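F.,

This is the one I mentioned.
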């Protein structure tokens, strides 16, 4: 079984064909730079280009950084506002001429990590956070992944927490690992107070640098970096393409 997994983000759209039985990439991933001002039509063009790169015909899963209900995109905090209300399966299906299934980007990462990565075999309560342009979040329990929007937890002055703790904020504000780690520690402590996860998995590109900031986080739960690092979104979107009911 194979499917094309595509991960849409604010700086790039990435994808690769995936063996959905093992989670392995079947070809080197392809990355196309984008900017966060692209309209849905422009982004669909990029997704079409990505599928064409792999001469793909078959199921496609697309991870998108927003709240997704079936295939409708309901929020677009870090991409063009015109995505709100779009039917992603139709938009990207037309561009690729393939059947497309939509999933929230963090949910895709969560599905991959819980199945084949850092959370494999863990059936307790796990919180997966992806740190990138925004903060993605899911809870997994007994193997079921539930997409959340904890990046928009009201934080200082009522702003979305992701404006304070996302990996992009560390870069934009030139924070040291310790300064950023301290912000993250506070945020995770608050989430722990509400959710009581037993395991916390940190994903997103920055998870490959976990040695630099995990020491500042000090959660109650066991803390692990994502095993797929930045490929979790691609792998999980591909799994979703063949598994969504
Ligand atoms: C979006 C989420 C997304 C996260 C990570 C947030 O701004 O609202 O849906 O999972 O960013 O990309």
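My design for it:
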């Amino acid at each position: 079984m194979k499917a094309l997994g595509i991960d849409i983000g604010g700086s790039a759209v990435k994808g690769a064909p995936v063996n959905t039985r093992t989670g392995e990439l079947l070809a080197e991933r392809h990355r196309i730079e984008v900017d966060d001002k692209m309209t849905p039509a422009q982004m669909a063009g990029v997704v079409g280009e990505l599928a064409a790169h792999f001469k793909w015909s078959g199921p496609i899963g697309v991870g998108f950084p927003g709240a997704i209900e079936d295939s409708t995109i309901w929020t677009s905090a870090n991409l063009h506002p015109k995505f709100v209300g779009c039917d992603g399966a139709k938009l990207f299906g037309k561009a690729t001429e393939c059947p497309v299934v939509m999933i929230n980007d963090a949910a895709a990462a969560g599905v991959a990590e819980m199945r084949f990565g850092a959370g494999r075999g863990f059936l307790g309560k796990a919180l997966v956070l992806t740190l990138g342009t925004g903060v993605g979040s899911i809870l997994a329990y007994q193997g079921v992944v539930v997409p959340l929007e904890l990046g928009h937890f009201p934080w200082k002055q009522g702003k979305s927490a992701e404006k304070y703790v996302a990996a992009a904020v560390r870069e934009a504000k030139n924070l040291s690992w310790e300064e950023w780690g301290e912000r993250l520690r506070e945020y995770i402590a608050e989430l722990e107070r509400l959710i009581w996860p037993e395991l916390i998995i940190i994903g997103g590109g920055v998870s490959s640098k976990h040695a630099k900031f995990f020491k500042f986080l000090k959660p109650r739960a066991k803390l692990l970096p994502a095993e797929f690092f930045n490929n979790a979104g691609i792998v999980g979107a591909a799994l979703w393409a063949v598994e969504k009911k």
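The longest helix spans residues 177-195.

Talk soon.
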